[in-house]
Hints:
Blueprint: H1 2-6, H2 16-19, E1 46-55, E2 61-65, H3 70-79, E3 86-92, H4 96-108, E4 111-114, E5 127-132, E6 140-141, H5 143-146, H6 156-163, E7 165-169, H7 182-190, E8 194-198, E9 201-205, E10 214-216, H8 222-232, E11 238-242, H9 248-259, E12 263-265, E13 271-275, E14 283-286, H10 291-304, E15 307-311, H11 319-327, E16 331-335, E17 338-342, E18 352-354, H12 366-373, E19 379-383, H13 393-399, E20 403-407, E21 410-414, E22 423-425, H14 429-441, E23 445-449, H15 452-455, H16 461-466, E24 471-477
Parallel strand pairs: 2-15, 3-14, 6-7, 10-11, 18-19, 22-23
Antiparallel strand pairs: 1-23, 1-24, 3-5, 4-5, 7-9, 8-9, 11-13, 12-13, 15-17, 16-17, 19-21, 20-21
Helix pairs in contact: 3-4, 3-9, 6-8, 7-8, 8-9, 10-12, 10-14, 12-14
The structure holds uridine-diphosphate-N-acetylglucosamine.
Amino acid sequence: MKQRRALRKPINDDSVERVAPKRPYVLVTDAGHENPPFKRLDQPTGFLMDRISIRGGKILNGSIQISGAKNAALPLMIASLLTAKTLILRNVPRLADVNLLLRILRNHGVDMMVEGKRAKQDESVGETIHLSARSIVDTTAPYELVSRMRASFWVLGPLLARCSEAKVSLPGGCAIGTRPVDLHLMALEQLGANIEIEGGYVVARAPKGLRGNRIVFPKVSVGATHNALMASTLARGETIIENAAREPEISDVAECLNKMGARVSGIGSSTLQIQGVEELGGADHMVLADRIETGTYAMAAAITGGDVLLKGARADHLDAMLLALRQAGVKVEADGSGLRISRNGNRLYPINIDTLPYPGFPTDLQAQLMALMTMADGVSTIRETIFENRFMHVQELARLGADIALAGDTAHVRGVDKLMGAQVMATDLRASVSLVIAGLAAEGETVLHRVYHLDRGFETLEAKLQACGASVERLTAG
Ligand code: UD1
């Protein structure tokens, strides 16, 4: 247990080294050739030093196609480790995190093939990826790869369930506070795994296989729920997961697992029941629309006083965010094709929000909401209850003229009449996009540095904003 305490060290994901592998890599597909659609993560010139320039003051008008959800695509890809058959995932967003996870899966022996673009296929449709883990050739997920992206730690449960052993480096991820993995380990121990921490690695063994059990999470964790859910599909007997996270991305994974032959019920609730099966098969699954990307563009439209249709957005996954927008005076209309966000020129009203697990207001939209509230008529209160260090955007928003006072876990945002463009620094994925939102409303030019944070989670951000009239441009280094 002494070693467990060491897991509570803060994780800093901000180093350039983590994002830039030293040597070029080549993504080899089933067919054994390099796959051009994937960006190399490691080109020393270019994206690491890229900046985004925004000339604010343009009103956004038009439509934006919402991409597949990063936070569903990643665990869905990991679920491919549970079966020797092929898992076909559609609408996978083209993101640095997806590319990195493909590298990690390939290291375990997963064959992958990316379908070419079909004639007349809409540019905005994500990729279709075939993943086949016919045999797992390596059950170790090394530090060099896992430390760059926290979600890759979730390979632990599936590898353990399929191969009875796994060795996975302790994770990295956004620098948004202490992010322990005790709940993941507790859940796998409940399923009968023996777990040791050795040299920065979690070494998990279950020589006789996993067995179903009752897992009661003391705290809601998205990642620990994914890990426990995936592992228990192949455990002997029944598993009940209580106080499970209820995020739509978890339901999406559970539905895909059922298509693969798993027996998961209670999907969407905080109690999941899983009847273990001997083996899982293949499936064909479409990644659900990204609710965080949806919320982000909704706030971008709102701050500029524009009128934007978010095509393919799922309003039913965004109740808390849409309520907040309506309270702020933004018009929200949902129809079959998506969500229309507009504002009629009035000032925004201030609002008070606590971030909470789903269906509460998502922590992944906290920074974007704060950017929006910098222009409200009065003082908004935003309390961050999920991560303790998720206010790094505050000092950058202040550089644009925002008036924000921090008191512990709460930010008091006093709306200002105008923001002014400046040089700002991205610090993590969602924080960086909050600076884009503020930059869209600021007078003059805002230049965002460390754009690689954005590339982890937002597909073709500049193109999507440009299509609605924003003046946004990537300044490519070297
Ligand atoms: C996932 C999301 C991330 C989102 C977060 C919360 C993905 C790829 N990432 O991250 O975008 O911000 O959910 O909605 O889907 N905790 C523990 N022990 C653990 C695990 C977590 O104490 O073993 C704590 C964390 O420190 C945090 C809280 O639980 O305070 C929630 O974290 P969790 O839901 O696990 O976040 P992630 O799965 O890492």
